[in-house]
Structure formats: C-alpha cells, structure tokens
Fold:
Amino acid sequence: KVLSENGVDDVMILEASDKIGGRIRKEEFGGVTVELGAGWIAGVGGKQSNPVWELALQSNLRTCFSDYSNARYNIYDPSGKIFPSGIAADSYKKAVDSAIQKLRSQEGNNNHESFAETTSTPKTPIELAIDFILHDFEMAEVEPISTYVDFGEREFLVADERGYEHLLYKMAENFLFTSEGKITDSRLELNTVVREVQHSRNGVLVSTEDGSLYEANYVILSVSIGVLQSDLISFTPPLPRWKMEAIRNLDVMVYTKIFLKFPYKFWPCEPEKEFFIYAHERRGYYTFWQHMENAYPGSNILVVTLTNGESKRVESQSDQETLREAMQVLRNMFGPDIPDATDILVPRWWNNRFQRGSYSNYPIYVNHQLVHDIKEPVGRIFFTGEHTSEKFSGYVHGGYLSGIDTTNALLEEMRKDDGRKNESQAFLLEPLLALTGSLTLTQAETVSSLHKCDIPRQLFLSNSKLGLPEAIL
Ligand SMILES: Cc1cc2nc3c(=O)[nH]c(=O)nc-3n(C[C@H](O)[C@H](O)[C@H](O)COP(=O)(O)OP(=O)(O)OC[C@H]3O[C@@H](n4cnc5c(N)ncnc54)[C@H](O)[C@@H]3O)c2cc1C
Structure:
C-alpha cells in the first residue's frame, strides 16, 4: 500500500513456501484451527494503537482476552501437587523483582547481556519453572520496564477458524487475492526459493532454486534472521563485514507450541486456569501449559510450549516419543488414569529451512549499533522483518511496522536515485551483463531485455507475514 500510494506498482514478491504468511500459519487440528506460529495480538490497550489490533478489529477477527500472569497460581510440583498460591506468587514476585533490580542497575552500562543472563542460576523446580517463564516465555513480566509498552500490555489470543492469516488475506484483498483467497496477481510467486542475490551499483539479479532469474533495481529481503544466518541465500559480492557481524550477533529464539488432542477434559478448565505450569527438575521440560477451552470450548486440546534447546531436541525426535514424554508429565500432574492423547501436532520451526527459528532475541539493553546495522541497506538490498524492529522485534506488529519503515527508506532512496539518473542518463543505460558473467547466454539475454524495460522494476523477496507489498512485513 505504501508503495502503491507512492506510484510504485512494478513489484514482484517471491515466496519460498506454498502460501503467504510466514510465521503466521494455521492448521486444522482436532476439529479446530490452531496457530502454529503467532497466536496472540500483543500490545493492546496502551496510549497508541497497535496497527495489527486495528486490522483485527476491521476484519472482525475473533479473539479472546488471554492473561497468562494467572499461571503463577497454577504451578504443579514434580509429584503433581499445586504449590500453595501464596508461595507460588511470592516466588514469582521475588524472581521478577530481582530481575528488574538487576536490569535497572545495568541500565546505561551498555551491557549486552540478554535477559536470560541477568539473574542468578535458579535451583529448585519452582525456581527453574519461574525462570523459564520469565526468560523464555516472552519475558512478559519485565516488559513494563522496557520501551515496549507504547501499545499497551494486554494480549488477545486469536480464536478464529479463519486463522490469524485472515488479516493478511484481508489486507491483500483486491490486490493479490480475491475475497475467497485465490491469487489474482502475477506479482506473487509461491514456491519460489531465492538462493542468490547478485548486486552492484546498477541493480540486483536474483536467482531462485528452480533456475529462474529476476532482475530489478532494488530488493527488499524480508526473510527471518535465522535464514540470514543460514547459507540458504548467498550474496555476490558477499555482504560487508559489519552486516555479517550484525546478522551473526542477533540471537534466534526457538519457540514451539505442541498441540495435544484428548477424548475428554481432565484438567481444571475454569477460564482463569487457562495456563498452568509444571515445575520439573529439568528447566523448560514441558513447563508451560494452556488449555484451549477459552478459545474453542469443547475442543479438548492442550498446548504445551517448549523453547530453544528443548524445542530443538523435540524437533529431532519422533512425534510418538514427544507424545510419550508429554503424557508422562501430564500423568505426574493429573494422575495415572488420564486418557491418552488421540493426536499430536509438533511444529518444526528450527528445522524449517525457510525459518530456522521462531523470532529474534535482542539483548535487553540493546546495542544501538546492532539495531542500526541489522536494518541498514547494503547498496540496493534493503532489509526488513521483525528482527529489524528496534521496539517490537519478535512480534507481528514489529514485522508490520518494520515493513513500512523499510518501504519509506526505499522510496527515499528511489527519489535520490531518480535525481542521480536525471544527472546522468548514460549511467542508467549501462548494460547489466557484467553482473551475469556466469549465466547462460539465453538467461543473459532475458536479463538484458528486462533491463531495457522503461518502467523501473522493484523486486520484493518473500511475502513476509503479511506477504504483501501493501505492508512489506
Ligand atoms: C511459534 C511462534 C509463536 C509466535 N507467537 C507470536 C505471538 O503470539 N504474537 C506475535 O506478535 N508474534 C509472535 N510470533 C512472532 C511473529 O510470528 C513474527 O515476528 C512475525 O510473523 C515475523 O514476520 P516477518 O515478516 O518478519 O517474517 P516471516 O513471517 O517469517 O516472513 C518471512 C518469509 O520469508 C520466506 N522465505 C524464507 N526464505 C526464503 C527464500 N530463500 N526465498 C523466498 N522466501 C523466503 C518465508 O517462507 C516467510 O514466508 C511467533 C512466532 C512463532 C514462530
């Protein structure tokens, strides 16, 4: 939309997978729609309006208020007894206070520790569980001291059969899709995996896995930080050292929601018991649980969240093994007589070569050079996506807003470029063949003829979460 409003319509979106949405991805499971990726619209109810929440309202997306702070009163010990609420709440408060105190004492020190490194090592199962929730489960309790509060602290769970992705299709309606979600536009190419970006001061040339070539004046790369860290896409010439270092220095978080379907409910399913915690001797071992009765009453589905090392471990084993482990934990909590799950769904974000993780994880006191370098363009290559958002990295709205920022930066560059072109038409007509030395003649001819096109061509790689030029996310 931003591009279109500025008269730039000649764009191409190359998406590696078979649908738009990226880390917004739904699947039918156990008779309902579950979100394998983003599930919450976070950052609602503050001074400013979160644009993703606005989209949800406009699209009549069904959501339900979801407050996982209640989980602190539902902590099960390894033998299945619930910790008295006073003890659980006190332990929680102590852990939060000490983390906040430590963070405050470090404020301004330009200390690059991640939040996980700020507290002393916990020892008991309850300390381990709380530590896991505070540090791995979205750092929910410390957000109020950070700058992330502009949009508010309320969170809403998407509970709509059409999925979170409905927002994306709504945004792209009459642009890339019909109201039934059918692609109408040749500007979007699915199943198109970018493998190489050749770039020079004259333009970019993109090669895809199927051997196609796309020539353009600019490229916006919205792949995840995990993909940038992997060798999926190569750059010729290679990216400069400052860019490579920024990419390498940003942590990638793996966050996995495992879904389990049961023949009937055996867990307490009052609305305020939506979340519960299992305090195991092993940190992060099937710790954080949620029932889906608030979102989909009668669905009989439980969700357990794993992160990082546990996510990677579970991704590499069979789903049957994961089911066995999860059932053992549930039997510790609820007794030996509970029924076996009838189905399990284990997303694999780490092993997905188009993701390689779930979202970026910035140090709590961000090194501004890192933020700057991660989003800074390299010549004609622009970078966007949640990892380039200083305030909202890791969130859908971070991706959305970074898309707009990057688009504006590109538009600015295009204006400057137009100025330069007017000064020197000769430069514009310089053949691109220098870039294509390694290509076959036919390909080179194709490239060459595309280059002669009068209309400026802008190329966008991947769809991003919104998948659309309207909001390059
Ligand atoms: C399990 C999980 C839970 C989450 N929970 C929440 C939540 O509750 N709330 C929230 O706000 N956020 C949440 N997030 C984060 C949120 O989903 C992301 O921040 C956001 O969707 C990222 O959008 P993006 O456009 O930056 O990247 P993506 O959506 O990942 O888009 C990048 C696109 O690039 C494509 N691609 C990759 N490689 C190539 C290639 N070589 N060629 C072409 N295309 C390529 C990918 O297929 C993908 O479509 C969660 C994420 C995960 C994984």
